């Protein structure tokens, strides 16, 4: 009798556990509740964002040109292991000789790797192409803003003679012909204090989400107290006139660190009173097919093959 009852109790408890467990697993949970602040406290600083890092790979003479000025400095944020992506970019849209009569310089920006072999490969690659810059902060997603600040600093220090700077990622495809054409049309003051890209206005911080991808951008009130972001250009590709890269770098030192790199960039612009200009030709899909479609940049070309195919489609029409 007692044994049977015990069995029933055990069974009931077991079934209840399963039920409660599955409700817990299936219910949408707010993934923002996990505390992630501790992993980036080292770079978070209420007084601002001091950028005390040292270049361990540099090509200081990259922008030395004798004839004309550099028209466009392309800065591609990459990571030490993404050698194939860099090769694909060098061979396609990032080739400096693509646009006749226009001086372009392409540089890849990376952070630090703990992997000695990877570092060796990176140095060897830089020995061949002389186009990599590396600062001594840990290369990680949460440190992406440091990479942007590094680019601003480098552009103003080592490439002051460039007219424009394109800040982009190594999974972005750029229609370099349309971009140069577009920038050439800017005259006089239009080409000063100028920032353009796909501009987001009135976007809000993610406070709670059940979506894993979105959870990458969770921000607590402590991380970011305001209810919306200032206008900012989507981080995969934006253009800055080089008269303001130093200003943006300098103001960044006084803007509290936020790992969402493009929002952080928008905060710096806001502090300077610079309004980024929206340009719908910067897109997110993979729809930069031809020169006629007037697109400038697209995102999510995750493989070197995709980069090469997009390029082959493009040059057939440009
Ligand atoms: C990180 O910073 C937050 C906010 O300033 C603070 O509440 C938290 O205790 C810090 N975490 C660590 C591990 O220092
Ligand atoms: C960064 O450098 C500045 C100026 O050299 C210095 O005042 C500051 O203490 C440094 N900060 C850190 C965290 O090392
Ligand atoms: C960012 O880089 C700094 C400096 O190397 C490092 O101390 C910190 O742990 C890094 N943060 C993350 C989240 O990787």
From TrEMBL:
Major localization class: Golgi
Record GO terms (molecular function): glycosyltransferase activity; hexosyltransferase activity
Protein name per its UniProtKB record: Hexosyltransferase
Topological category with respect to the lipid bilayer: Single-pass type II membrane protein
Database matches in InterPro entries: Glyco_trans_31 (IPR002659)
Top-level enzyme category: transferase
EC number: 2.4.1.-
Pathway the protein acts in: Protein modification; protein glycosylation
Single GO biological process annotation from the record: protein O-linked glycosylation
One GO term describing the cellular component: Golgi membrane
Family: Belongs to the glycosyltransferase 31 family.
Any Pfam family hit: Galactosyl_T
Transmembrane feature ranges: 9-27
The entry's keywords: Glycoprotein, Glycosyltransferase, Golgi apparatus, Membrane, Signal-anchor, Transferase, Transmembrane, Transmembrane helix
Subcellular location: Golgi apparatus membrane
């Amino acid at each position: 009798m007692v044994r049977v009852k015990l069995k029933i109790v055990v069974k009931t408890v077991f079934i209840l556990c399963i039920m409660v467990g599955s409700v817990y697993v299936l219910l949408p949970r707010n993934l923002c509740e996990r505390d992630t602040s501790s992993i980036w406290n080292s770079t978070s600083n209420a007084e601002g964002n001091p950028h005390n890092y040292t270049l361990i790979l540099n090509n200081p003479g990259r922008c030395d040109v004798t004839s004309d000025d550099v028209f466009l400095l392309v800065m591609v944020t990459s990571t030490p292991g993404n050698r194939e992506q860099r090769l694909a970019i060098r061979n396609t849209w990032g080739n400096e000789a693509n646009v006749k009569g226009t001086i372009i310089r392409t540089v890849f920006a990376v952070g630090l790797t703990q992997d000695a072999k990877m570092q060796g490969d990176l140095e060897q690659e830089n020995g061949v192409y002389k186009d990599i810059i590396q600062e001594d902060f840990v290369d990680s997603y949460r440190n992406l803003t440091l990479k942007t600040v590094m680019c601003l600093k480098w552009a103003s220090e080592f490439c002051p003679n460039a007219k424009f700077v394109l800040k982009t990622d190594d999974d972005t495809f750029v229609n370099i012909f349309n971009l140069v054409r577009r920038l050439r049309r800017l005259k006089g003051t239009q080409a000063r204090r100028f920032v353009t890209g796909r501009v987001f206005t009135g976007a809000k911080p993610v406070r709670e989400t059940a979506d894993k991808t979105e959870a990458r951008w969770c921000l607590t009130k402590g991380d970011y107290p305001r209810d919306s972001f200032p206008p900012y250009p989507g981080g995969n590709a934006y253009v800055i006139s080089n008269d303001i890269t130093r200003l943006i770098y300098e103001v960044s030192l006084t803007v509290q660190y936020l790992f969402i790199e493009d929002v952080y960039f928008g905060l710096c612009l806001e502090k300077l009173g610079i309004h980024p200009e929206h340009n719908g030709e910067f897109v997110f899909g993979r729809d930069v097919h031809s020169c006629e479609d007037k697109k400038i940049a697209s995102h999510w070309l995750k493989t070197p093959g995709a980069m090469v195919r997009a390029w082959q489609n493009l040059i057939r029409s440009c």
